[in-house]
Automatic annotation (TrEMBL):
NCBIfam families: L28. This is Large ribosomal subunit protein bL28. Keywords: Ribonucleoprotein, Ribosomal protein. InterPro entries: Ribosomal_bL28, Ribosomal_bL28/bL31-like_sf, Ribosomal_bL28_bact-type, Ribosomal_bL28_sf. Transmembrane segments: none annotated. Belongs to the bacterial ribosomal protein bL28 family. It holds the Pfam family Ribosomal_L28.
């Protein structure tokens, strides 16, 4: 499976390694993903999601139900 956040769609970015002599070579900045289980009381079930660390902060702030609702509206979460 690709390294993409299941709720926000965050994925890898492309950039450069820059040496002291300013030589540039391509590199990849991967998203900071973690695998986490959440309990959804409305559906009375547990789900395992691969999410970015910044998304986890949003879940802690807003709650899993609100973040799932936003993700469904944006077309990322379809379960």
């Amino acid at each position: 499976m690709s390294r993409v956040c299941e709720l926000t769609g965050k994925k890898a970015m492309v950039g450069n390694n820059v040496s002291h002599a300013l030589n540039r070579t391509k590199r990849k900045f991967d998203a900071n993903l973690i695998k986490k289980r959440f309990y959804i009381p409305e559906e009375d079930k547990w789900v395992t999601l691969k999410i970015a660390a910044s998304t986890l902060k949003n879940i802690n702030k807003k709650g899993i139900s609100a973040v799932l609702k936003e993700a469904r509206e944006n077309g990322f979460y379809k379960k």
